[in-house]
Every structure is written in structure tokens, then in C-alpha cells.
Amino acid sequence: MNGKLYFTRQGFKKRIKEINELTKKLEDLQAQTAHIAEVGGNQYHDNFSYEQLVIEIRGLNWRLTEAHRILNQAVMVDPPQNAITVTIGTRVTILRDGEQATWEIVGHGESDPDRELIAYNTPLALLLMEKRIGDCVEGIIAGKRVWIKIIEITLGGGDENTE
């Protein structure tokens, strides 16, 4: 969807919290480097604790960079005012190959299938987006052709479901 990543307000707050936690952890680890280098002697290349710390710092730095990259592409989506079509923030009941299921469409990185939450950019959600009650779609999910009918669309639980 055009290089942007769509977030609910709660998903955006969660991403900011993650960045703050990663930043704090990275600062804490970086503060330990001088002490660990000193304790292990001046031969830092033979200092296992120092090497492990550097690996951990690099990993955290990568995660922080990735979190910022995602945040730079973020577009916050307000909850819909009505449930005419399937969008982020709606709950949709479908009939898929004869079996009924209900899913709430959520923002990037907010999927939780155990709680019936799927992100807008998952294969199933992509088939459902912008469809209306009664619409039928056919597509391929996980290499299997599926047939889906939209039975009901309601407003989703909103921010309380996407902690």
C-alpha cells in the first residue's frame, strides 16, 4: 500500500514505547562497556564479556534502527465512523470455504490471531479490504484457492483491543 505502514493510535503508541525501551537498554549497555573492558584487561579482543556486550549492543542498535525505519513510514489511522466497508478498525464476519470466522482488521504489527486480530496487510485482510456486506471474493492464501463471502461488518473494538 504505497510504501506507508498504517497504524492504529494504540499500535503507534506501542511502537513509540518500544523505541523508548530499546533506547534506554542501549544506553545502559553502552555505559557498561568501559567497565567490562577494564575488568577483562586491556586486550579487548580476548575479553569474552566485552565481545558479548558489543554483539548485544549491535543487535539492539539494529532493532532500534529498524523500529525508527518503520516509524518513519507510519501513518496513523483513526477508527472508522461507520462500518460500510472493511477497513482498519472494523470487525468482519466472513464465510470462508463454508466456515464462519470473525476478524478485526488492525494496523501494522498488531496481528494477534489468538485474539482474532489481523493486520491490514496480511493475505486474508488484503482480500477483504474495501469490500461490503454480501461481497464475495476469491483468492489464494497460503497457496490454496479460497472463496470468501462478507457476512457482517461492524466497528471494531478500537484501541482497547490492540494493546
Rounded to an integer in angstroms, the radius of gyration calculated over CA atoms is: 22 Å
Sequence stretches where pLDDT stays below 50 over 5 or more residues: none
Mean pLDDT: 89
What distance separates the N and C termini? Answer: 24 Å
Helix/sheet category:
alpha/beta
Number of E strands: 7
What is the helix/strand order? EHHEEEEHEE
Helix content: 25-40%
Roughly what fraction of the amino acids lie in strands?
A: 25-35%
Biggest pleated sheet: 5 strands, mixed
Which terms summarize this structure?
five-stranded mixed β-sheet, Chitinase A, domain 3, 163 residues, alpha/beta, 2 domains, 3 helices, two-stranded parallel ribbon, elongated, Helix Hairpins
Give a quick rundown of the structure:
This protein has 163 residues and is of the alpha/beta class.
Give a topology summary.
Layout lengths: L4 E3 L1 H31 L8 H25 L1 E3 L13 E7 L2 E8 L10 E3 L3 H6 L7 E6 L2 E12 L8
Parallel strand pairs: 1-2, 4-5
Antiparallel strand pairs: 3-4, 3-7, 6-7
Helix pairs in contact: 1-2
Tell me what the structure shows.
38% of the residues lie in helices and 26% in strands. With 163 residues, the protein is an alpha/beta fold. It folds into two domains: 5-76, Helix Hairpins (Orthogonal Bundle), CATH 1.10.287; 90-161, Chitinase A, domain 3 (Roll). A five-stranded mixed beta sheet has the order 5-4-3-7-6. The longest helix is centred in the first third of the chain and has 31 residues, at 9-39. The protein is elongated. The protein starts with a strand and ends in an 8-residue tail after the last strand. The mean pLDDT is 89.
